[in-house]
User: Which sequence fits this backbone?
């Protein structure tokens, strides 16, 4: 600067002052990604994170036009309202009712015997027979009609059920009263009662609450694979499920394994099937004179059956019912013949054994004498001199 002339110095100072003023009033350059190496994510100014939300970007919840749809509910209220309802609302059910924009509206009420609930600002609202979503819409309509809220968002949750249950009785592992839940088919309730007992049959009677005297029979699938409505119907609250007991058929007499055997009242049992459960008739059974003893109101009846022809398919098989007695008598002729044959066989075996012993005893002495006669004489063995001096006598 000292080497510069005064006129040049003034020009340099003026240029320096102008450059400094321009730098102070200049803005930061915009981000550029032209020189960024590969692998580095490219960002645009529109994707930059904003420090504060902009009110202009918020959805128009309160100023929405008519018919544009309902306002967005919170996640918790949406999950509760979309949950499938196990049963319609009934008297005694405890409800939890809340409105998203008005915390003071939250109420825990019980459904009255006439199906209504008493809520703040709108008093009585009819909810009997509705599900959760329908009840919420009914309360929203009541708030709109009273002019309390312009855009109500109501959620209804059932916290306790009263009378929404099903009784499971009869031949199940754990009979009792079970709650009517999301799974309310017949097999679901039987599973809740820990399944069928060993003496259970396949016939199930369902009694409705409004008609306890009329049974609705349902036959369970024996294979357990068919879950259609015929074998697994829907139940309603208040139903009573009665699982029937399998009957007993008694097979006695000359059979291999006599005893009592279960018979399913829905499937039934026949005489040949009962005999097969008893492992069939014994050897001396009189299969032509079988008896079927049946208890009836008029008394006991006896029916003669030709079991031999039934087993060979020469006569039609007959059904057998609960508490029937199938008697297979013993044949006296077969018994005598069998005992005679057994005695003859035993006698023949005894005679053969005795003959063999006598023959062996008669043959043994001759063989011994022959061997003795043919044997050469025994020569004396000379003794040792030391043994002779000791006075020991040798063998004779």
Assistant:
């Amino acid at each position: 600067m000292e080497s510069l002339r005064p006129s040049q110095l003034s020009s340099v100072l003026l240029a320096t002052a102008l450059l400094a003023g321009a730098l102070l009033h200049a803005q930061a350059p915009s981000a550029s990604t032209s020189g960024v190496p590969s692998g580095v994510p490219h960002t645009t100014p529109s994707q930059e994170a904003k420090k504060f939300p902009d009110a202009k970007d918020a959805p128009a919840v309160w100023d929405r036009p008519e018919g544009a749809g309902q306002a967005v509910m919170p996640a918790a209220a949406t999950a509760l309202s979309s949950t499938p309802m196990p049963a319609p609302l009934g008297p005694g059910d405890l409800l939890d009712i809340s409105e998203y924009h008005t915390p003071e509206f939250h109420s825990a009420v019980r459904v009255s015997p006439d199906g209504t609930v008493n809520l703040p600002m709108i008093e009585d609202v009819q909810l009997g027979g509705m599900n959760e979503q329908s009840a919420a819409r009914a309360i929203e309509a009541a708030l709109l009609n009273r002019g309390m809220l312009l855009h109500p968002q109501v959620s209804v949750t059932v916290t306790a059920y009263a009378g929404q249950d099903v009784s499971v009785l009869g031949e199940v592992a754990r009979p009792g009263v079970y709650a009517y839940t999301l799974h309310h088919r017949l097999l679901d309730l039987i599973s809740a009662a820990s399944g069928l007992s060993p003496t259970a049959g396949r016939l199930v009677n369902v009694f409705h609450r409004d008609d306890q005297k009329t049974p609705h029979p349902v036959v369970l699938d024996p294979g357990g694979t068919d879950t259609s409505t015929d074998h697994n119907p829907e139940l309603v609250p208040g139903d009573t499920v009665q699982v029937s007991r399998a009957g007993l058929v008694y097979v006695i007499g000359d059979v291999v394994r006599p005893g009592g055997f279960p018979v399913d009242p829905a499937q039934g049992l026949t005489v040949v099937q009962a005999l097969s459960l008893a492992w069939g008739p014994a050897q001396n059974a009189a299969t032509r004179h079988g008896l079927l003893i049946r208890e009836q109101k008029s008394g006991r009846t006896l029916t003669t059956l030709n079991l031999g022809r039934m087993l060979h398919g020469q006569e039609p098989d007959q059904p057998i019912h609960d508490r029937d007695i199938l008697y297979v008598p013993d044949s006296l002729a077969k018994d005598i013949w069998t005992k005679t044959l057994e005695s003859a066989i035993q006698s023949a075996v005894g005679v053969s054994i005795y003959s063999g012993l006598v023959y062996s005893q008669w043959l043994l002495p001759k063989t011994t004498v022959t061997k003795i006669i043919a044997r050469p004489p025994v020569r004396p063995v000379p003794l040792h001199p030391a043994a002779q001096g000791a006075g020991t006598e040798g063998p004779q």
In short: The chain has a mean pLDDT of 74. The chain is about 25% helix and 25% strand. The CA atoms of residues 95 and 158 lie 5 Å apart.
